[in-house]
Amino acid sequence: MKQLYWQTFGQGDRHLVLLHGWGLNASVWHGISDRLGSHFCLHLVDMPGYGRSQGFPAMSLDEMVASLLPQAPDKAIWLGWSLGGLVASRLALQHPDRVEALITVASSPRFSVAEGWPGIHPETLSGFQHQLSEDFQRTVERFLALQTLGTESARQDARALKSVVLDHPMPSVAVLNAGLEILRDVDLRTELISLELPMLRLYGALDGLVPRKIAPMLDALWPTSSGVIMEKAGHAPFISHPEAFCQYIIDFMK
Hints:
This protein is 39% helix and 15% strand. The radius of gyration is 17 Å and the shape is globular. Helix 8 links the parallel strand 6 (199-204) and strand 7 (226-230). Strands 1-3-2-4-5-6-7 form a 7-stranded mixed sheet, sandwiched between helices. The chain is an alpha/beta fold. The chain is built from 10 helices and 7 strands.
């Protein structure tokens, strides 16, 4: 059986698993791993087909969840950024006994726009799928640039994300396409109403991919969860505002 790239370190007695977003890998957490590692036993994972977890085929959301469980601790706080938020959410729904708490970062239970629901237009995601086959690297770079738009440190943050991609093996077009299909098709809004675990949702006020408008909508839909909008942050608040980001997580888990 293939094994995922899975790095474990830290000083805490509680496990915290970090799941990255589309096109990236666990190195995206480099700027916050020391801070969080002083409070938690940290697990940095390259999801199947991404970064150093090569040799995996394109997967559905459920298949991605199943691939994570064999190497995961018996019980952990699961934190997922963007696409990783959907993976962590599905895992919490299917295996609540393995989850102490759920934290989603710049993520949405439904990424694509719908009636009365703000999000990404499906044509935009389909456009990225089409462009992947024509100019693979440029398409990924364009998507990364979208994640930092509007922030004061946009150029610096975009460079940080780009270096994370280029320093490790690139995902295949098939794996990237499968990720875009998950972002386009999955809708967990109703299922997550029944989740009885502690849940924190972190958003960037300037996020161009996950509109801040969904925060109060989910406050109403999931009243037992906590939503926080980080001002002046975009789609990657842990890169632009690492200290504040870590403090939210530490405070929530107290």
